[in-house]
Amino acid sequence: MRYKRGILMEQIGIYNAREVGGLAELLATIDCELGENEHFLIVVNNQEIAEDEGLETAMMSALAKGAKIIVVWPLEGPHLALPDILRKIRIALIKFDSEALHDVICNKNGRNDGPGGGRLPAPKTDRHCC
Predict the structure, then answer these.
(1) Is 85 helix (H, G, I), strand (E, B) or coil?
(2) How many CB atoms lie within 10 A of CB 54?
(3) What's the pLDDT band for 119 if we cut at 50, 70, 90?
(4) Can you tell me the mean pLDDT for 2-16?
């Protein structure tokens, strides 16, 4: 998998190129055992991601290798629109919160948190008949 910033833990990677303040501490709160084949890729939505021309290719590659994409709203700054690829393929969209991250990774609960609270619609999965 292509991780721009490297892997914090063996099975949880970060896509953002620049260090996101507080993200390492947030990930350090994950205290559950992951299955051998469970892999997650964390993407913090920000201006850099919105302008990343390689985002779609990287996300499709990560998906093909079995990673589950978790998108995190940033702590501060403008609330950017979610890039289409992240809107479609994420398993979760969460606020920058250890409880939310734990809920998704450890409890396997999907979440669709809005940037200012509330819930957003879950991603639609394309279904092919027959």
Answers:
(1) helix
(2) 10
(3) low
(4) 63
Other Cβ atoms less than 10 A from the Cβ of 106: the count is 14
Name the residue type at position 21: G
Condensed to tens digits (0 to 9), the pLDDT of residues 21-72 reads 899 899 988 888 888 889 999 999 988 898 999 999 999 999 999 999 999 9
| Sequence-separated contacts (24+) of 121-128 with Cβ below 8 Å | 123/87, 123/88, 123/89, 123/90, 124/88
CA 118/CA 20 separation, integer angstroms: 23
C-alpha distances in angstroms, 107 versus 3, 50, 60, 77, 117? 24, 29, 25, 29, 21
At 5 the pLDDT is: 40
pTM, rounded to two decimals: 0.82
What span, in angstroms and rounded, lies between the C-alpha atoms of 83 and 57?
A: 13
Q: What is the DSSP letter of 107?
A: S
Name the nearest CA neighbour of 59 among 3, 109, 9. 3
**Torsion sign, CA atoms 63, 87, 47, 42:** negative
The one-letter code for the residue type at 48 is E
